[in-house]
Each structure stands twice: as structure tokens, then as C-alpha cells.
Amino acid sequence: MSKAVCFERVVIPDGNSFLVRCDRDATIDNLSLHCHPEMEFQFTLNGSGIRTIGDITEPFREMEVILIPGNIAHNWIYDSLSRGHIMEYNIQFSLETISSRLSVFPEFRRIVDMLSGLDSAMEIRGECGTRISSLMMRMTAQSAQERLISFMEILRLVYICNDIRRICLDVSDFKHSGTSRIAGILSYIEEHLCEDISLSDVAYKFSMSRTAFCNFFRRSTGRTLVFTVNEMRINRACMMLTNDDSLCVSDVAYACGFNNTSHFCHVFKRLRGCSPGEYRQRGIVLADRALSEKNKIAKFDL
């Protein structure tokens, strides 16, 4: 069965050329697949789950910065472990609005041309992604003039970034049925992460041969089943390490489906570039930063 795509009306406040938002658990309700003509930056500070953008459905994790062109269907579905800790930042803007200002700011011509040529969503990584995420967190507490300067810097960083991963394979032909099926597979994996997940079992569950399943899964996600299962397990481990200091590393490993701590640490370092203990320490620093930003926002609202 095809998934319906809802149209979202983005309301940009009077006196502003773009919308900046910080959403937490209370304001996030796992929106259905939706689209809008505005382009959108999405930064997940805390939380993980499964996202769909165009014809790609894949796991997502914290600290990812995504740029989505206008009119591409998308949604973020947070997993149960993220509830109570979710925080994400969004910037929505009209490319037409920026283009109409080129007579005033001709220096932005190349940036506008780059944005106009985007035919797929992208993950902005490396130093540029880190700087963009920092700017997005600050913008919710900035004055209108400060937000504009930050927004212009974000666009510049996207333009110069050389560490980008394109996400959509074919945005011109959104394959509803295929997307629905892969979403079901990923949901099944998430529900059984703490169990042994074999290729044969998953293929049988979804009435496919091993070969057909492998071809379908790689075509739909760009990844193998083993890589995806490991990534989703590590996503869950990250949430547990960040949100529950009472759990030791071995507890987290077994709760996420790893049979031994050594293998867990090896996979964790390969996917995150640090050990579970180092990641937990970074999470403490990140939580302090988020609390600081929250206090700034509260003070600004007063």
C-alpha cells in the first residue's frame, strides 16, 4: 500500500525571511511523511530512529545536519529510547526569497545557484557540519539581525563544504511501495535489536529469498543488512550511554544485541571513531551545552 504524503504549510513570521525552530519531545509527534516547497536544515541534537527522505529510508542518529531541498517528502521517526530526551533544530526557508535579494547581495549568486541545482538531500559532515550545528543552536536565542548573519554563514559553510553525503537516490520518482516495505523491515529490526538477527530470518519474514532481499535492501538503503543492524544497535547504545550513567559498557552491549563486550567496542569505535567510554564523556559535555542553550532560550523568551 502506498504511503500518503501530506503537505505542510510553513508559516514564516512577519518581518522574517526564514523560520528557526527548536523542537523537544512535547512538540515532536513523529510527523507522517510530508513535504513543503521550502528548503530545510534539520539538526538532531539528541535522539535516534529511522528517517525517510525521498526514496531512501535509513537509520539516523544524533549530531547529524541534513539539508533537504523543497518538495521532497520526508519524516523523522524517533525510537522509544529517545523519548524524553529528543531535541532537534530546524531552519526552513524559501529559495525564491533568497533569489529575489540577489540584486542587493550579488555575492550570493554562486550559493543560490548551488542550492537551485540540488536534486537530492545531503548530510553535511566534518568541520562545516559541526559549525552549522553550533550556529543553529544559537539562532533560537538571537535577535533577528544576529539570526540573519548566522543564516548567511550557514549557507556559506554549505557552499564550501567538501565532506557531504548525498541521501536520495532518485527524488524524481518516489517509490511509495518500496519505501513502505523497507520501513517495515527497519521497524522489525529495531524491535528485535537485542536478539540475534540473521539474513535468512529477515528475508523469510518478508517473503523474499536471500539474494532478492540483499538486492532489494542495498538498492533501497545503499547499505548491507549487517552494516544497518550494527548501526542501529550502536545508535541505541549511544542513547543508553548518554541517558543512563548507571549502566556499565557490558550492560549496554548485551542490551543492544552484542554477544560480547570486545566486539561491541570494536564496532562502536569503527562507527563512532571513539570508545563507548569516550562517547559517554562527550555526551556529558553535550548535555551541559544543551542545558546552557536551553537557559539562554528561556532568558531570551522573558
Outline the structure in words.
The protein is an alpha+beta fold and 302 residues long. The protein folds into 2 domains: 6-166, Sandwich (Jelly Rolls); 176-283, Homeodomain-like (Arc Repressor Mutant, subunit A), CATH 1.10.10. The chain has 11 helices and 11 strands. The protein has helices at residues 95-99, 109-116, 126-139, 144-160, 176-191, 199-205, 210-221, 225-243, 249-255, 261-272, 276-301, and strands at residues 6-7, 18-24, 34-35, 39-46, 49-53, 56-60, 64-68, 74-78, 87-93, 122-124, 164-166. The strands form 3 sheets. A 6-stranded antiparallel beta sheet has the order 2-9-4-7-10-11. A hairpin with a 2-residue loop joins strand 5 and strand 6 (56-60). Helix 3 runs antiparallel to helix 4, helix 6 (199-205) packs across helix 7 (210-221) and helix 8 (225-243) crosses helix 11. The longest helix has 26 residues, at 276-301. It is globular and about 60 Å long.
List keywords for this structure.
302 residues; alpha+beta; Jelly Rolls; Arc Repressor Mutant, subunit A; 6-stranded antiparallel beta sheet; 11 helices; 17% strand; globular; disordered C terminus
For the CA atoms, what is the radius of gyration? 20 Å
Overall mean pLDDT stands at 83
Describe the oligomeric state of these chains in a short phrase.
Answer: single chain
Instruction: Give the C-level CATH assignment of the largest domain.
Output: Mainly Beta
Strand content: 15-25%
Counting helices, strands and paired strands, the structural category is alpha+beta
Low-confidence stretches are 169-177, 297-302
| SSE order | EEEEEEEEEHHEHHEHHHHHHH
CATH superfamily of the largest domain: Regulatory protein AraC
Order of strands, widest sheet: 2-9-4-7-10-11
| Number of helices, counting only DSSP H or I runs of 4 residues or more | 11
Distance between the termini: 48 Å
Shape: globular
Task: Write the CATH architecture name of the largest domain.
Answer: Sandwich
Helix content: 40-55%
Biggest sheet statistics: 6 strands, antiparallel
Number of domains: 2
CATH T-level fold name of the largest domain: Jelly Rolls
